Amino acid sequence: MREMIQMVVVLTILSCVSGILLASIESGTKEQIAYQQLKFVKGPAIRSILEGASNDPIVDRFKLKDGEVERDFFVGVFDGQANTVAFETSGKGYGGDVGLMVGVDLSDGKIVGVGVTTHSETPGVGSRAKDEPELAVQFKGLPLEGEFKVKTDGGEVDALSGATVTSRAVATGVTEAVEIYNRLKSQLDDKAKEYAK
Length: 197
What we know:
The chain is globular. It has one domain. The chain has helices at 2-49, 128-131, 164-193, and strands at residues 61-66, 69-78, 81-92, 97-105, 110-118. The chain is built from three helices and five strands, in the order αβββββαα. Strands 1-2-3-4-5 form a five-stranded antiparallel sheet. The model has no long low-confidence stretch (mean pLDDT 87). Strand 3 (81-92) and strand 4 form a beta hairpin.
C-alpha cells in the first residue's frame, strides 16, 4: 500500500512539473508564434494588397475592438497619406473557414484588394482561390456597399470553375468586410491618421 501511495505522489509531482513547464514554454513562445504566423501566413496577402506602400504594413498595425472581437488593422501609407488599411475576415467554404485579408481605401470607401490567407479547401479546386488571382481581382475598385454574391446566387462575382462553394465563401468574407468597415469607419479614419508621414 505504501508503494502505491508513493507512486501516486511521484506521478502527481511529475504531472504538476510537466504542466508548469509546458505552460511556461507556451507563454514564452506565444509572441514568436504569432509573429511567424503574421509574417508567413497573413503577410504575403497583406504585402500583395498594400503593394507600393512606403511603410511596412506588418509593423504599422493597430487593434480595434469590434463588439467582443479585437481586430488587427494593417496600415498602408501612399504618398504620405495613411488612408489604406487591410484587415482579416472569413467565409464558410467547402472544407471549413476561408480566411481573407481585405484592403480598403478609407478616402473613397473602395476595395483595393482581396487575398486568401488560410483555407482547408480541396487541393487543385477550392485551393485555387489562394493561388489564382482571377477571383480576388473582381473585387478591386468596388465600393464597400451592399452584399457580394456569386452569379449563381444572383450576384456579380464570377465563381471559379468547380469551386463555387469556395467562391461563395470569398464573397461572404468580403460582405463581412463591408459590415466591419461600416461599424468601425470613424475609428479607422482616426487611427490610420496616426501613421501618416
